[in-house]
Amino acid sequence: MAGNTYGQLFRITTFGESHGRAIGLILDGCPAGLQIDEAFVQEELARRRPGQSKIVTQRKEADKVEFLSGVFEGATTGTPISMVIYNADARSKDYSHIANKFRPSHADFTYHAKWGRRDYRGGGRSSARETAARVAGGAIAKLLLRQYGIDIKAYVTQVGHLKLDKSYQELNLQLTESNPVRCPDPEMAGQMEAYIKEVRKAGDTVGGVVSAVITGCPPGLGEPAFDKLHADLAKAMLSINACKGFEYGSGFDGVSMRGSEHNDVFRTEGDRIVTDTNHSGGVQGGISNGMDIYFRLAFKPVATIVPAQDSVNEAGEKVTVEGKGRHDPCVVPRAVPIVEAMAALTLADHLLRQRTARV
Amino acid sequence: MAGNTYGQLFRITTFGESHGRAIGLILDGCPAGLQIDEAFVQEELARRRPGQSKIVTQRKEADKVEFLSGVFEGATTGTPISMVIYNADARSKDYSHIANKFRPSHADFTYHAKWGRRDYRGGGRSSARETAARVAGGAIAKLLLRQYGIDIKAYVTQVGHLKLDKSYQELNLQLTESNPVRCPDPEMAGQMEAYIKEVRKAGDTVGGVVSAVITGCPPGLGEPAFDKLHADLAKAMLSINACKGFEYGSGFDGVSMRGSEHNDVFRTEGDRIVTDTNHSGGVQGGISNGMDIYFRLAFKPVATIVPAQDSVNEAGEKVTVEGKGRHDPCVVPRAVPIVEAMAALTLADHLLRQRTARV
Amino acid sequence: MAGNTYGQLFRITTFGESHGRAIGLILDGCPAGLQIDEAFVQEELARRRPGQSKIVTQRKEADKVEFLSGVFEGATTGTPISMVIYNADARSKDYSHIANKFRPSHADFTYHAKWGRRDYRGGGRSSARETAARVAGGAIAKLLLRQYGIDIKAYVTQVGHLKLDKSYQELNLQLTESNPVRCPDPEMAGQMEAYIKEVRKAGDTVGGVVSAVITGCPPGLGEPAFDKLHADLAKAMLSINACKGFEYGSGFDGVSMRGSEHNDVFRTEGDRIVTDTNHSGGVQGGISNGMDIYFRLAFKPVATIVPAQDSVNEAGEKVTVEGKGRHDPCVVPRAVPIVEAMAALTLADHLLRQRTARV
Amino acid sequence: MAGNTYGQLFRITTFGESHGRAIGLILDGCPAGLQIDEAFVQEELARRRPGQSKIVTQRKEADKVEFLSGVFEGATTGTPISMVIYNADARSKDYSHIANKFRPSHADFTYHAKWGRRDYRGGGRSSARETAARVAGGAIAKLLLRQYGIDIKAYVTQVGHLKLDKSYQELNLQLTESNPVRCPDPEMAGQMEAYIKEVRKAGDTVGGVVSAVITGCPPGLGEPAFDKLHADLAKAMLSINACKGFEYGSGFDGVSMRGSEHNDVFRTEGDRIVTDTNHSGGVQGGISNGMDIYFRLAFKPVATIVPAQDSVNEAGEKVTVEGKGRHDPCVVPRAVPIVEAMAALTLADHLLRQRTARV
């Protein structure tokens, strides 16, 4: 069944395989009258694109986006916005050697089990290349959110064992883009970069953590029961390739706290109602309370490694798999813009949904 | 906008407030011909119901479910199944003292911010009472999954600082229901129970962790891109009241591993393709691979506590809030059947979706 | 797959079988703060209920609706509104004689073909009894639309060969409820009533036409491409039992017109843009233009008749079927409130959707 | 809100404006393993394309479709299929004269009312050019249906006052494509063609009727309550530009029949259960019964005419509008493949939905 759509009112449907002709999306439900800054969309794609630094995959893709519809005289018209990114550096021959093999911890086996066939070139649709479409759609969402003063910032807080133990308030998030790791602490960023290079030299990969904070979100976004704001964020984040965990607010650490210390006491600040502590992470009962929304995401090490690994092929025979394709030694630097995009899409959707809450 | 529906093909819509007339659900999309064991549905509800032990809320609810439609001569007909549970012990007067106050870390403020009004009695729709409807629907999902040999078991692995550091393979999950905490390690269960009682005596609350494992899931369930099996599980779990985090497979611990140790190598076992390790947690590329699916959930301490707390009311004035309503000192024992229900609903939905994968 | 839900943002899901325990619905997405006039909901149900006159089925149902959730202190809270109507006069024994027979032109055979089983009592879910739930939900929609000055009026314009050849402008629609046929022309109503009685006496049934007009609809409701306002109206209407056709505006008669006579020329009237003619039927390009929306619906003769008919049973054997159950000799008088309800649900949904059209 | 998607499981989302860069679609949910005959898709587009004969618009578009994803080694992979058709002959200057004018009976005014702006070039998204995307998606649906022996044939039965009063059984539908009108009666086709030419010469337009029949549909397709097979067909058809009415089976003529003559009596034919008459039009209770499904559609005269017409502009000032753009004098010949496409999409969707009906 169709599973390539995200969002209810602000809704993207993505398409495309890693080494197919193109990837892209339709964004349906974007309100009319939004000025589209195409250069901004392209900049966001540049943050995700391969080859941007020495610690990411060296596949060469300009990721030039073309708008096919929905924008007229510089602004959205209310009709579907289609964007396409043609694949340039699709070296399909790179992958012929694994055409009928199942690479360990990749989606080769599960795609085959589901559909009885698959586009094996570069992982086909299971490749993180699909996320470029999300970043393009997310950029439009960001432009909408900007009008409401909502800002989203993601950044790297862990690479392998190297963990940055600071809250977002203790960091200068303006520094995130100052280094290829996208860690806002320059010293830690240097260590992380050195470590990623060491891992890459060993032909290996390593995992990491991306943290994120949403500021300026008004109270009232999110729905009761199932479509809680943080539940939708969780789904959005876990839908990103290699993501293995999500926690918001006090998260897993909060379980050992008592209610009396965990509760966020309300007080008035001017005409706003605020809390001093924010263990709730900006969401209570599934609905935003106006405080900062923050969360953390676990990313596993990339499955593609250079050393030979045992596996099986479609016939169930034992085979050896070697990592010849280009790949990232650590996914988190490039995950940062993707996390922001998925958060932006989620917020934009709930922003529109909120408009129907009252008579 | 409507946010009270979960699932695409096996779809529940729940209704009801904590102290309203009734709670219930419509389950639409359940295949015809499923034998309905009403006693089993009632047993599942008994596992969630208040008053079942001394460490849970003492609200008195039999939670007797009535089937209103969709079942004929003991089996489903393919038409919507409606179930209703009338509220019995709805002491609305208990709540009049907080009618216009915002209890700290409850949904009072956010509901008010969203809709400009709310049913304040016992938290209205934000109460975990709504989850009884999920358990009823989840019981039907379990009956369907049983036919496919799919089994779901949740259990408590942490209460406050008391953490059970054993994997599901090291535990006897048959023991989960042998104690009121629902921890499958009887010794640890005893400590946890004592701790919960101590916390309750102090008028306080504490958080915990629920772990879960799904066995017997065939390969091929889940969709690419957004509707990944684990992404839907994440949303399902985070939609449960008080849940703050989700991780599956290697989760947050996996981030410090290298690809060479994290990868799950395939081999053949009889006519099945399996892996020795299972850091993937039974899901690769968003689709089940036939191995066990396991995950962990963080639950925060319940917000209702006995000691007086500062807060504000609807007018923004400073007020004091005291916890008079009945409540759970720790949510995890009763969360166990809810976690299972949401997992069952997710699996049942993807089981049906998988039927359309091939020509 | 689940097919018992109508609407995107203002969304009802109905349940129930003709002779089951109850029928009912969940309305999700109704904005908060709508005053609920329960007496009005009950009046609407009275217009649809059996036994209201001598020309409709004599089944005895008070159709007393109970609100189970979503309404607090007389107004909606934004949470799901559940309503239930318990079946009173469910004479299941009436139907045992057709338990395994397929009544001609009923849904017995197709339900059996689809699901391999069915609740055969009174047609089970295929009975028009299900539409009581629609009328209850539609009444809430009407209350919402009333706030926007939108009014919907349906009425009977044909029974068998007796056709009322007048446009809605030539009729006094206040007279619709003055007679049991619900035809706003009293003389024609008398003829129709006599004819229905004659048909009933013969143990037979006859079809008819319901016309409807929506006034006060603002410009801008409806979506391009698939969710055109009139396309959603068409689906809504064809989903009513026994409905065989839908036309709006100039409809089938318009096909023989030329563009030069069919086009509706715009002009200004105060600060409104209006048209003199209205062949468009108030909708252009799928979106309302502010003029009256009008349409006509064909209803076939009810399939249940008294004389014996040949048919087959589940085993494919030849059998005889006799109409013992209570039934309507002509469906259109009771279809009037159902048509209004489905139109109201459609308009309410598009009213909310329109709120997200612009930045 | 997003309204550019059709279908639940076999789901298309279209994009594009008449004079934008491209039109196209994403088809999500097509089962894996379907052989894709690209030449067939192109042939279907050729049946809809402008310039194919002297009685249709002379806009020059090859309507060459490009597959961007979802097809690998000649077959579908289960991932989204994206198709794009770049606009070639987009003479935007043709439309500058109506940039701020509202053409009578076009969507100019309603689009403006809804979004406060619009792409006025050639009607933008309201142009029937969007239907090329539907035909491309419908062609894939046809390929799927072909595997199940389901065939759909649409044809013209009325142009203006010229009406072909024959049922589909009395016609040789192989002749439909033998003439530019797509009327299967060659003599009537000749008269219709002459009439269309006469109307065009007068700078005018005329309406018509398209009839259609679906053969080979198995029993069991369609859902109860709202998603009745014929209700979805009605929506699909009314979503086609200029369509004003839909009737199936006995339709509007059936209203004057009595139940005793309208009922379709069941009998056995080999191991199938069939009916002799088919007033039901192949659908009973919203679900297919295995007999032919047939329906008729009213199309209004095209709004674009050559003679000057009065109208107003965005400022509400009186203006004159002249039809300079290329347009069809009668829409029905080109509507035939569109009707088939929408029927095919509807059937394919319900075919997949039916797979989840039973345990």
CATH topology descriptor of chain A: Chorismate synthase, AroC fold
Assembly state of the chains shown: homotetramer
> Of all protein chain pairs, which has the greatest interface, and how many residues does each chain bring to it?
A-B, 114 and 114 residues
Shape of chain A: globular
Overall pLDDT of chain A, averaged?
95
Sketch the topology of chain A as an H/E string, one letter per element.
EEEHEEEEHHEEHEHEHEEEEEEEH
Q: What share of residues are in beta strands of chain A?
A: 15-25%
Q: Total number of helical segments of chain A?
A: 7
The residue ranges of chain A in which pLDDT falls below 50 over 5 or more consecutive positions are none
CATH class identity of chain A:
Alpha Beta
Kindly state the number of beta strands of chain A.
18
| Biggest sheet: strand arrangement of chain A | 1-2-3-7-4
Q: What is the radius of gyration of chain A computed over CA atoms, rounded to a whole number of angstroms?
A: 21 Å
Beginning-to-end CA distance, first to last residue of chain A: 35 Å
Kindly give the count of domains of chain A.
1
What share of residues of chain A is helical? 10-25%
Sheet having the most strands of chain A: 5 strands, antiparallel
**Structural class of the secondary elements of chain A?**
alpha+beta
CATH architecture of chain A: 4-Layer Sandwich
